[in-house]
Amino acid sequence: MDMKEMQQQVDAYISQFKTGYFSPLANLARLTEEVGELAREINHEHGEKKKKSTEEPNTIEAELGDNLFVLICLANSLNIDLNKSFEDTMNKFNSRDKNRFERISEKEEN
């Protein structure tokens, strides 16, 4: 599924509710909350702070999905095409930042 299809699927889901999309500021607050939950899961999995035995099971994958959903809601509410946004960002990285980091040599790849 490409990003356009994801945006359409989220729009179809949100469109069934009278409330519709939350305001951009509310979606930003939701995204911030979801990023915090993702950080917590990464810390449990890869950091020093292990999960308590009383905590509900959760996964990094699930939190990434939640973050993506809210990010798509934010983009849709602002009529932003995420495919174009991503293409523009990759063009920026491939031009402005093309020499910013040391590249892997052909010998290292093999």
From TrEMBL:
Gene Ontology terms for molecular function: hydrolase activity
InterPro entries named among the record's database cross-references: MazG-like_dom, MazG-related_YpjD, YpjD/YvdC
CDD domains: NTP-PPase_BsYpjD
One Pfam family it belongs to: MazG
NTP pyrophosphohydrolase MazG-like domain ranges (all copies): 23-101
Keyword list, A-Z: Hydrolase
Protein's UniProt name: MazG nucleotide pyrophosphohydrolase domain-containing protein
Species whose genome carries this gene: Mammaliicoccus stepanovicii
